[in-house]
Amino acid sequence: MAAAATCIAVVAVAMAVLAPGARGLDRRADFPPGFLFGAATSSYQVEGAYLDDNKSLSNWDVYTHTHPGKIKDGRNADVADDHYHRYMDDVELVRDLGVNSYRFSISWARIVPRGRLGEVNSAGIAFYSRLIDALLQKDIQPFVTLNHFDMPHELETRYGGWLGAGIREEFEYYTDVCFKAFGDRVRFWTTFNEPNLLVKFQFMLGKHPPNRCSPPFGHCNRGDSRREPYVAAHNVLLSHAAAVRNYRTNYQVTRDG
Ligand SMILES: *[C@@H]1O[C@H](CO)[C@@H](O)[C@H](O)[C@H]1NC(C)=O
């Protein structure tokens, strides 16, 4: 999950080199029309607030607490950058970078903590709604990633994560809730962050939850590195297809997304 953090660092360094001391100037005025230049984060890496406002535990919350040796220095993201509470400051920082777009991911466990068999969490919807409004108010285009390696722990347990075919309906349901709640303001959507790496880290190398792999690729308690990554990839692709079909059929035209 290092890629998103690297993006922010690269943008920050580039802006510092190009415009030392120009903090607060609106360099965006120099962009060609339609040009988007941005920074990016992912929910688990920045939000913290891992038990706040009816969010359920995600696969990463459980994994970092139960496999302390897997993360450098036994750390976790219970607090992280505390973006959940400090998002207004963070939007201000993004604005000061001089970029005009910002990509973030939504935490599935905040929106539908128990999947499609439970309730939609209005507090989770309200959080991303406030974030999107704050970005738009600063003329920053929100880019929403619907899945950046995380899912409710309960769904990982129920379906074996991306190994189980039932996860496709769950993803379609969760993404529909997002399109409905944020589609009036968000035009740019990504279904999966790095799906190739998602299945590789989860089911071939076993470095990410649910920590499944087999020799010679890695040493996990369970898994089959020669088979499972392909099963998971199959379900990820069909989940993507279901979300895209739903968006194109029911949201794209009216919302120009
Ligand atoms: C969390 O859920 C409970 C039970 O549905 C509800 O009473 C409470 O208002 C919710 N909290 C927030 C912050 O939405």
TrEMBL record:
It comes from the Eukaryota. It holds the Pfam family Glyco_hydro_1. GO terms for molecular function: beta-glucosidase activity. This is beta-glucosidase. Residues 1-24 form the signal peptide. Belongs to the glycosyl hydrolase 1 family. Its EC number is 3.2.1.21. It comes from Zizania palustris.
